[in-house]
Amino acid sequence: MKIEGQPYRSLWWSDEKGCLEIIDQRWLPHELRIQEVRSLDDYADAIVQMRVRGAPLIGATAAYGLAIAMANDPSDASLAAAYDRLHATRPTAINLRWALDRARTALAPLDPERRAEAALALAREIAGEDVDINHAIGTHGLSLLRRLAVEAERPLNILTHCNAGWIATVDWGTATSPIYQAHDAGIDLHVWVDETRPRNQGALTAWELGSHGVPHTYITDNAGGHLMQRGLVDIIITGTDRVTRRGDVCNKIGTYLKALAAKDNGVPFWVALPSPTIDWTVSDGLREIPIEQRDPREVSHIQGAGPGGIAEIRVTPKGTPTRNDAFDVTPARLVTGFITERGLCPATEDGLAGLFPDLIARR
Ligand code: MRU
């Protein structure tokens, strides 16, 4: 996508510099800062600190991280250590394990001397595939939005939570891809953007939509149900960090409450789902998906970036106990369906298996 008219991706490999470059998302939406990522420590830090974030982007970054480890030391021990180091960075988004597993499976049988080149080629392939997958999600989502837009007879109101935009992927985004494509196709639409405390990923979505000229309004996390009751939301589209084989959806904390309110108000609740985000090994999302617990300071303080750096302001009385679950699980029964790169399907095991018989069979 574009920033001030210039085409960008959220990460890119620089042959000239011999390193990966990323948009450091901690500074957005205030400042565009590009960071060079060189060592395995840099990679792990970029994911842990959420300089890169969003399930697909974490996966692509980890693939490049493994390539760097192989360039430095292509031994079996180094491959195992780099895998473990990167895998431990964040626990919930399955794309991380998916990318690392794919890379390890491809690299382990190779002669160590061939691993560095193969690992870099594979990382580029994973990043490229992500772009294609998200573009295809947008094309399928566009037909869904087109249908709803005809029924709406006024600008179509879409609500989204967190940032499942192009900076959460390599390009296009998942939830935003249908929105960008519908906007570009001339469909009259407007997006309600949940702020998504505590990290305020909604501000990233607002920045993206604003850069692309998509009409939008930033709202508090608690406003969605109220807007749905008043008929001001036609469809919800979110991204996801992990979907189980039966269709439970793990996504940013607060997604479940939106799905509940959507059910009560008859608002369709769709999830944009790239196939690498399906975890075929688990079924019951509530019991089987590890939920990341983040620093309680993100709850007790509000963060923003300014000229002096990243600033924090306390909002709670000193010493107030706080808890910071980063994700929640929306049961499949609350999900209208998935928008995948192969088309739309119901949020059921049969629905997913129907679109991805090849992937389910491998498990
Ligand atoms: O904690 P984050 O910012 O990495 O969480 C991101 C989300 O929850 C996204 O909705 C999800 O990863 C899908 S991104 C296409």
UniProtKB/TrEMBL annotation:
SUPFAM superfamilies: NagB/RpiA/CoA transferase-like. Its EC number is 5.3.1.23. Catalyzes the interconversion of methylthioribose-1-phosphate (MTR-1-P) into methylthioribulose-1-phosphate (MTRu-1-P). It catalyses: 5-(methylsulfanyl)-alpha-D-ribose 1-phosphate = 5-(methylsulfanyl)-D-ribulose 1-phosphate. Belongs to the EIF-2B alpha/beta/delta subunits family. MtnA subfamily. Keywords: Amino-acid biosynthesis, Isomerase, Methionine biosynthesis. It comes from Palleronia marisminoris. This is Methylthioribose-1-phosphate isomerase. The record marks 162 as: Transition state stabilizer. The gene is mtnA. The keyword Cytoplasm does not apply. Gene3D superfamilies: translation initiation factor eif-2b, domain 1, Translation initiation factor eif-2b, domain 2. Pfam families: IF-2B. GO terms for molecular function: S-methyl-5-thioribose-1-phosphate isomerase activity. Pathway: Amino-acid biosynthesis; L-methionine biosynthesis via salvage pathway; L-methionine from S-methyl-5-thio-alpha-D-ribose 1-phosphate: step 1/6. It is an enzyme of class 5 (isomerase). Substrate binds at residues 53-55, 90, 201, 251-252. GO terms for biological process: L-methionine salvage from methylthioadenosine. The active site is at 241 (proton donor).
